[in-house]
Amino acid sequence: MAIKYKCPNCQKLWIEQTRCSCGTLVDIKPLEVDEAGNIVLTSGRNGYDRYLDFQYSRSGHFMQALFTAIMKADTENQDKLAMGFPEEVEAYRCWTRIGVEEFARRCGNKHSALFGTFCDEYGLEGLSNG
Ligand SMILES: [Zn+2]
Fold first, then answer.
1. Are residues 69 and 11 both part of a single domain?
2. Which of 5, 35, 37, 54 could in theory staple to 67 by disulfide, Cβ–Cβ 3.0 to 4.6 A?
């Protein structure tokens, strides 16, 4: 498995978390890719699915409070929240700094009705149902 970190600003690839030559902090966990360069998808619900729930007001009280805190936090406090909830912080950063298409790739549960609704809304054809 190769792992590359992609700069959300200029798309340059790095082999470790770093500050990109364009000045952007490259701190979102990369996707794993196989030798052919295809993305290896995680299975099962993950923090990205939980952030999608939050976007569509389906979260329970705790996740609602957590994502609200992540949104309100500055970078330093976000990094602290990421120590306990790394996927949730990454999902928020991916949504806000990389984009919905990349976000959709990282969702673990691509068979839910909510994921289908999300893909329809953002015109992400071919991403639902695997
Ligand atoms: Zn860059």
1. no
2. 54
